[in-house]
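Contributing new complexes? Match this layout with adenosine-5'-diphosphate.
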Amino acid sequence: MVSLPFSTTSASAVETERIAATLSARLVPGDIVLISGELGAGKTTFVRGAARALGVADPVTSPTFTVGQRYSAAQPLQYVAHVDLYRLASLEHEDPDLLADYTGAAIVTFVEWPAAGREWLEGLGRVAMRVTLAHLGGESRSIEAA
Ligand SMILES: Nc1ncnc2c1ncn2[C@@H]1O[C@H](COP(=O)(O)OP(=O)(O)O)[C@@H](O)[C@H]1O
Ligand SMILES: [Mg+2]
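Output block (do not edit by hand):
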């Protein structure tokens, strides 16, 4: 298993999915993974690779009309959840149950643009990993996990 902190570069979306799959072997039900990086850095691509490795069969796309989406996963997981807080400046005035469907003891939760909810998320589960992706030009990306 890969130990943290971990740092690498990816040359393609497929490679980012593969790296995400490798890193996902560390995760257990209840874990929360924070994923940071600019638009197009590959956050959703990373979630796709990790979700697949955790037994998600359905196609993983960006949540559009909701703050998150959840997918049936393989035992012992019930769901993989994918949350995107891009549109939220802060969770301060949000419904405390906003993320109730997306976090829990049988769920692994991936959160894009976590800044707005960082403290909140820390109260909802174990933040098991923080991933940062960055553009390095062309299809090249740096990927760091801690
Ligand atoms: N090395 C790479 N890793 C991840 N995505 C890449 C890479 N090279 C090119 N891409 C492309 O960049 C885009 C990343 O989009 P996405 O994963 O939705 O980013 P984000 O969620 O960070 O906005 C996709 O179109 C993907 O195919
Ligand atoms: Mg995205």
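Reviewers usually confirm one structural detail per submission. For this one: The pocket of magnesium ion (ligand 2) is lined by residues 43-44, 62, 112 (CB under 6 Å).
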